[in-house]
Amino acid sequence: MADYPIEALGGLTPLQYASTPSFDRLARMGRSGLLTTVPDGLPPSSDVANLAILGYNPAEVYEGRGVLEAAGSGYRPGPDDMVMRCNLVSVSPDGILTGHNGGGVTAEEGRQLIALLDNRLGSDRMRLIAGDRYRHLLVIKGGSKHIVCNAPHDHIGSEWMRLLVSPAVNAPDEPGRMSAAATADLLNALIKDSHHLLSCTGVNKRCCADALWPWSPGYPARIAPLASLWPGKIEAGAVITATDVIRGIGHYAGLDIIDVPGATGTVDTCYEAKARAAIDALRTHDFVFLHIEGADEASHEGDLGLKLQAIERTDSRLTRIIVDELNGENSDVGIALLPDHFTSVERRVHGSDPVPVTIYIPGVEPDSVDAFDETSCAEGALGRQPAREFMELFMQ
Ligand SMILES: [Zn+2]
Q1: Under 8 Å CB-to-CB from 93, ≥6 apart: which residues?
Q2: How close is the Cα of 183 to the center of ligand 1, in Å?
Q3: Topology adopted by domain 7-62+223-395
Q4: How many angstroms separate the alpha carbon of residue 135 from the centre of ligand 1?
Q5: Is the pTM of this model over 0.85?
Q6: Tag placement on the chain: N or C end, fewer CB within 10 Å?
Q7: C-alpha separations of 206 from 92, 102, 198 in Å
Q8: pLDDT per residue over 234-252, tens digit each?
């Protein structure tokens, strides 16, 4: 949700411009501040930001997007696996990377293409695992994660053969694993073979998925369950989300993953069902992490109207229900509201700036902040905090 001032909105941010009475009500009930969710030196990605918000140090535990999504999709990596996110990408006839999402490949087409590629190019060492549409996974038994890969969405318009995988400088020798150079060779052969198969053999007539593109390598994550970090405070936690990467973080954090029918991860998600699921989950859980993706998707599409709609729907169809329900006389439920990171709707990329946060705890004196946005929250009693403080503040 967080964003920068936009000229078309009279210099306001989307959060300031949108009508958000329930966010603002929560801000009036609670204490607000700014939270740095992307630690210095790390990319402003959802996985890094959400790990940080949950109190983990991403510099220590972050193993890349692949292992988190694998866990989120139900695959349990073995100890010697190296897991990567693997996109279906589009490449022009003159060798330019033109798309990170396989030319809008559908879920069914994506599954079929990955099954075909795994069948033809997979081996005992290397396996493709189908995910959703253009987002898939690659597992290499004994592969090295010490390789340099390029995230496809950051390199649209580049010559794709310049973006191939290379071994990291000073890659360590790891007993029982391939060298970084051998891993890079294996991956580059896979990229080229997949391009040959998809674009030259005619198996792929309906969409522009032209090649596999593996990136974000990592080993199985070592993340302590939240219950072990907050004994007596969190005995049972739950996560509600439509995205595999947040499901994966939830899995490693020891949270129960609650599936909500109608939750899509888009602006059209069923907000009411997610709100109800969170309220229900609080009957059996101490802690519920409820994740809404729509505003981020709208930002990547560069669609300001859609982003405003996503924000207003999150306010009126989700936050309103939760605040109404949990703000009763005898309620002992605390509520925190925050974006995971900035996503600029004008530039269509994430940003590392500190995000606004409001924490409401029954019985705690509110501060004077009366609106939930990037500048109002900066005046709040919580001040500016590093992400690891969020769980501390919330759990207190
Ligand atoms: Zn995003």
Answers
A1: none
A2: 29
A3: Alkaline Phosphatase, subunit A (3.40.720)
A4: 14
A5: yes
A6: C
A7: 15, 11, 11
A8: 999 999 999 889 999 999 9
